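Listing S7. Sequence submitted for prediction.
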Amino acid sequence: MSDVEEDPELERCATHLNYEISMLVKLPAWVARFDREGPAILRVACLEALLVHARVLIEFLVGRQRPATDITPSTFHWEPGDTGDLGSYLPRIDKHLAHLTRERASLATSPPWPVDEMVAQIVGALRPFVTSLNDAGSPYATLIGNAMIDSPDPSGSGNRSSLVATTTSPNQPAVVTGLDWTPGPTE
């Protein structure tokens, strides 16, 4: 039992953060599955959903100007340390999801999305957050930590290897590499 008093608002924030992380770590398997089995529109929907959850979590970690109602690390009394180059994903994600751009129109020449690498970097940057929650006796450390269990192995070893998806267009075939792993059961 934790010495930290439970707070219903903080619990809602932790539950939402758990959802974002869970979706991020489960979607690469769906991108791969629909790349193998189709239909292409489902592959694209899963890849775009993955990118939305990636953006939400990257913004949580690296910050962006946001309304006071947003959930931030300070909501949990934590300040992130060095998040490396996580913020470098944001301009590309923004262009592919939020704007009708010339770059998006020419996806055939677009570099691949390093899906598992990106997910592993985000999860890696979240690990100190979970450790901090745990060290503070937070009742939400396990909830949020459990969301990261199925995350990609950043070393490429273990039961998952790197997944790279090269397009978010249903009219262009995606090239997905590194599928020598089998996604777990999907709910």
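Caption to Listing S7: primary sequence and predicted structure tokens for the chain studied. The first helix runs from residue 8 to 37. Residues 153-187 have pLDDT under 50 and may be disordered.
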